[in-house]
Structures are given as structure tokens and as C-alpha cells.
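Data card: per-record layout.
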Amino acid sequence: MKANLRPVLLVARRALLALVVLLLGYGAAGLIGGAVPVNRAWRAPERGIEIWVESNGVHTGIVVPKVAAGVDWRSLARPEHLTDPRYALYDHLSFGWGERAFYLETPTWAEVKPATVLAAAFGSARTLVHVDHVPRPRPTGDARRVVVTEEQYRRLARVIAASVAPGAKHHRGYGPYDAFYDGTGKYSAFRTCNSWTGAALAAAGVRVGWWTPFPVTVMWWF
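The structure for this 222-residue chain is written out next.
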């Protein structure tokens, strides 16, 4: 019996070792990619549009004013989409993008399930845009203030708007102040919710990492 088990155990050990090497390689690649800057020459203007880059430790997002530089988000993020429409009185919105199951099932690390993460990592076209109605953030370790020009902000807004599916349906959020909207694009280990944040900022012209798959690879730039 023991002799018969040896080949099985050997295969299992090799598979486990390969998985560990893969995860370590992915982590190292993510940290390296996040450390390589794009828009290296970018400098924040003295005056412009104030945005915020935020993280809850799992997902990152971008906080923007509801109305600024000719961009008005109120037609997308409507009061009736919220469990409590009174939160729509706040003057800022937080945008994030991600895989549907990963977003809905992992609001914090406590809810992270390996099966959910693994399924999302292999690729999913079921994506959502998460929108929170929030007051103007205060500078903290979880929210970093960034100033951009009006043109940079409009470029950022175009990326965010393109991430929302045309005629997107809204879905109930985590609480009374947020909602989810059907998204565009495919989620994978190479295009995560955090790399979406980095790519959106890069498209606007902001200095950020070349590839930012983890929250830390986004936040350490601000």
C-alpha cells in the first residue's frame, strides 16, 4: 500500500512546489512591475482637479468630484440606485473595477476564499464597477490626495466611463451608500482591480507603476 502511494505523493509534492514557485514568481513580478514608473516626468500642478487614490487593503479605487471640468457623474450614479438615497447628497464618488464574484464575496481580507481568487485569476468577463457615494476624503494612510490638470482629469474620466457597460444595470452594494454597475473588460491575474486603478491613472498622465496588481504597488506612489 505504501509503495503504491509513493508516486501519488511525489506528484502531489511536485505540484505543490510548482504552485509555490508560481505564486512567488507572480508576487516578485508584481512588485517589480509596480516599481517601474510610467509618466516619469509627471508633476502635480499647483492648481487643478483634486482626486484621491484609496485602498481598503484588498481593492483600490479612485475618488473624484461628482461634477468637475465639464464631467458630471450624476446621470450614472443616481440616488435611486442606493439602498438609502440620502447618501447621494455627498459630493464625491469612489470608483473601482473588478471581477464580479471577487468583488461581491471579498469586501475585506476576512472574506477572501482561495477558490474565488483562483477562479478570478484564470480570467472572467463578468466584471463590475463599484461606486461609493462619499464626502470629500481626508488625507490618511488609506486615502492619498492627488492634483491633476483639467485635461488629465477628463482623460481619467474617459477611462472610468469606458469601464461601465453601455446601459449598465445597477446592483445592490455592500451598504446603503454604494452600488455596483455592469462593467466592461476581462479580469485576470494580469488585469486585477488594482492594475485597473494604475492603468487609469497612467492613461491620465499621472506617474504610477507600469503594472500594479497589488494595492501596495498602487499606493506607494502617492
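Known properties of this structure: DSSP finds six helices and eleven strands in the chain. The CA atoms of residues 156 and 204 lie 5 Å apart.

See the next section for split statistics.
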